[in-house]
Amino acid sequence: MPKISLKNITKKFGKVIALNDLKIDIKDGEFFVILGPSGAGKTTFLKVLAGLESPESGEIYFDEDLINNIPTPKRDVALTFENYSLYPNFTVFGNIASPLKSPANKGKYDSGKIRERVYNIAKMLNIDQLLDRLPSELSGGQKQRVALGRALIKEPKILLLDEPLAHVDAKIRNQLRTEFHFLKEKFKTTTIYTSHDYKEAISLGDRIMFLDKGKIQQIGSPEEVYNFPKNIVVAKNVGWPDINLFKCYIKPENNNLYCPEGDFAFNVSGKILKLLKKYGEMEYIIGARPHNISFSEEHSDKYNIEAVCGVTEALDNQLIINVKIKNMDLILSIDNPDLYLRKDQKLWIHFNDQSLMFFDKKTSKNVK
Amino acid sequence: MALVSLKNVYKYYRSKKGKVEAVKNLNLEVRDKETVALLGPSGCGKTTTLRIIAGIEEISRGELYIDNILSNNLAPAQRNTALAFEDYALYFHLTVRENMELCLRAKKLKPDLIKKKVKDVSEMLGIEDILDLRTTALSGGQQQRVSLARALVRDPSIFLLDEPISHIEIERRYQILARIKEINYEFGTTILYVTHNQAEAIAVGKRIGVMNFAELQQIGTRDEIFNNPVNIFVASFVGQPPINLMKCKVISEKGATNLKVKNSSLKFITEAKIGKELHKLNLEEVILGLRPQNIYIRKVSDKQKSIKGKIEIIEFLGEDMHLVLRGGDCKFSVYCSVDMRLKKDKELELFYDQSKLHLFHPKTEKAINA
Description:
- The complex is a heterodimer.
- Chain A is of the alpha+beta class.
- Chain A has 9 helices and 20 strands.
- Chain A has helices at residues 42-50, 92-97, 111-124, 140-152, 170-187, 198-204, 222-227, 232-237, 270-279, and strands at 4-13, 16-26, 31-35, 57-62, 65-66, 77-80, 158-162, 190-195, 207-212, 215-220, 244-251, 256-259, 264-267, 283-288, 293-296, 305-314, 319-325, 328-334, 346-351, 357-360.
- Chain A has a 6-stranded mixed β-sheet, sandwiched between helices. In chain A, strands 13-12-11-14-20 form a 5-stranded antiparallel β-sheet, with no helix packed on it.
- In chain B, the strands form 4 sheets. In chain B, strands 6-7-8-3-9-10 form a 6-stranded mixed β-sheet, sandwiched between helices.
- In chain B, a hairpin with a 2-residue loop joins strand 17 (320-327) and strand 18.
- The relative contact order of chain B is 0.11.
- Classes of the chains: A alpha+beta, B alpha+beta.
- Chain A binds chain B through residues 169-171, 174-175, 177-178, 181-182, 197-199, 202-204, 222-223, 226, 238-242, 289, 291, 311, 313-318, 320, 322, 333, 335, 337-338, 343, and chain B through 170-171, 174, 177-178, 181-182, 185, 196-199, 202-203, 222-223, 226, 238-242, 293, 312-313, 315-320, 322, 324, 333, 335, 337, 340.
């Protein structure tokens, strides 16, 4: 399995810059997830690696070999497409076997060998009972497995998966995501996987690259991306319900933070104050994850910011609470979906300063 | 006021192969000002039920009452319901605004009032800047919002919403759900909401009706459905990650009734009253259901019993973690808060409450309660 290095890769479509000066090293055997909204350049990135698009500038290396000019069949990569692109006239067996029968592999495998490999892969993906069916007779989840089987049968050095779970139902998606963990263990192939779902990304990825408008926003481990997003774009797109963002000023007279939208102030630890003062601005944007804001139904020294409860939503594992502090909307979430809160009842909020994020007002970069 | 009640309602379709039952002996009551979500897989009859209430499907047998008035033969226009279709059914030759205004104009409302209503609803759903576009120029998600807007603008006494947010971007879905709930709070409009997505059903419905194979399996609050499912279907259809289901042997040891999971070292201890019930039924085998959310990695109370498992998979999900563990041949999943000390292949002691063990009859798949 090779490592992949990209040096200053830029890809343009006319005036649109799809990939903007990307520098990445992907390790041997790594499961690397590219996360980003639609139009971020995720698919273009995979196509550049597969050789289906060529970059305007920059170099791609597999191990030490420059592969910019090596044609797709010789790169030893396998790509699955977002819309599966199965051959509609081939059965599942035919689809999975197709790479072994390609012109490039002509005569390499006899039919017994092909059958054996297809059965093995199909069994691993739990589609061995579907081998005689046509793609039109399969569900979305099953089609996805077939596409994956077709990619894996070549035992490629690099596996490129384009939004494999985007078009299956929520329930199947969760199930397949868990299954990917088992596959990951089994094959240990260098894999690049794109997704717009942050849960998928942080759950599966050894490392995650957040891409937005062709630019790398952050590369890091799941914990880093979730707990220490580099800027507001990453913070907003990783985590659900969306992170709460609101302005605050440092009040020099009593070293409080004051939030004008909700007209409230609160204490933060000396450590954080020092950090903010060192950074040098007086105004910041606070990022507070709904999970990390605590509240109480009783007023106390700790819980001293008054809020009014709005609509609540009980989900399987959490309760989402929309509250208002004066005119400022805030979303809270707790692990107990059975808690009963009345609409319009008073709640008292406490911001846990350890988990707050502070962003530069102008550059939107994380201050920490 | 709007109270809908269906009594022993059947709906048949005739096909070449014979009679197809789309809805079977349905008894359902949607109370005044209530939001009820009908949840089920495709083909379970939930949309047919909605269309029966709207009056665009006839009832084969049984009775439909709206506000205690027998309404089987009432024309759709007389029922004061607003229906949002899953496939939108927009007027493609009209603009978004015209689509929304149409039924208001038919009711001969004053132009000022129409304007105001269209403005309010379009702002609420975030479509105010596309009001003058033709609906053909819109994306699927936008079209669906227009379809919902056209229903919401009418203030009927009952909203019938068929998968109204299934094609809207995930990030916006819950905002729109919150708005739908606010409408219910503010105007007291009765809402019947059809979906195949359990998270949506739980979020929107005060009560949730779970349907399968043309029959209503269970109706109840989130708590009832989640904690007292009547059968395996309801237990496994509702809840994410899905409930752990394990085939167990019933074994009596020292006066206690234990459930030993097949091909596994896992053993669960039931409450005494459930044990008695199992003996009464003379069952050798049962199916045990235990939700991933009800297995804890730390002991919460002294009454909790424990099992052991080896960690196979750790899924870090930001706010929470999903673990897949193995005990013998049995894999089960656990949903817990983030704990960075957990490592793959680690042997773990896990805790559960006996009251959260759900038992099902292996043949009938119905819940066994003491």
